[in-house]
Request: fold
Amino acid sequence: MIKKIFLLISIMFLLSCKEKHKKTFKLKYIKENHHIYIQLENHMGKDIIFLVPNSLEFGDKNYKSYSTRRSREEDYPITVYAVIIPDQSSKIYQRKLDSIRNAYLTEIGNSDFIGDERPYDGNSVLYLKNNDIIKVKYNLTIKPIIIPSKEIYSSTFKQNYYPYDKILKGDYPEGEYLRRFSKLNFGKATFVAQPIIEDSLILKISEKDVTH
Reply:
């Protein structure tokens, strides 16, 4: 009986150690004034190439929508989003991604869209060495829709992380050129689609928090 208990404890200890040393790519959010950082930690045991969206979207808990931004902004009392600050990507691999995107647009007859990207469109490519940490910085924008009211609108907003793993496997507009990019030879680095999301960014925002 004692031997069985000792064996069980040993197995649990080994599993615990294995879990601690599990190879991971972690992501967490940090808010600082009107900036948001995505902090990414590479513990994969190898250098990695990955993507981050150029725009972060937020959903208002009072509305059943992924984002309060773009085509339906007028439907929400407050619009919240964040746009990446330029020049944080890996220049070599960013050029490769942009080239694949442009070639694909030409292939499907949409070459008129080449060069028409806005700062919040698309994705940035990042290179992260093993056991390194990187912080990707975004400008946070909070825009209220002016509605005559005696009460100040306030709500909770959740940041929705871009689902790269689903996009690479599914039928999305940019899915094909992202798949083509993910299959490139990155030398000693490996493409990773989606990190483990350590937490979600929840913001309590009212009209008093408007970005000027």
Remarks:
- Confidence is low (pLDDT under 50) at residues 9-21.
- The CA atoms of residues 88 and 136 lie 7 Å apart.
- The helical segments are 2-20, 91-107, 164-169, 175-182.
